[in-house]
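Quick log. Single chain, no ligands specified.
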Amino acid sequence: MNETPAAGTTANPRHVLDPKTLEMLVCPLTKTRLALSADGRELISVVARLAFPIRDGVPMLSLDESRPVDPDDPAERARLGIR
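-> predicted structure:
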């Protein structure tokens, strides 16, 4: 499955997460706000220390789909684009 557009192309507008939708989404574990990663491919729960992928504009908010992140690590914070 191709999750990112090829170089020189743009993402399908139908696969872009709407900012209003992002405001309504919360972490399924902690019920806290999620942050969009710098590259727009993941939603980050700083409190739960988890990243949830976004596939074709659909957030995969399942704990089985998540991956661990370390928001205390400055390099990881920069890579994810979280403050």
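Residues 16-80 form a domain with the N-terminal domain of TfIIb fold (CATH 2.20.25.10).
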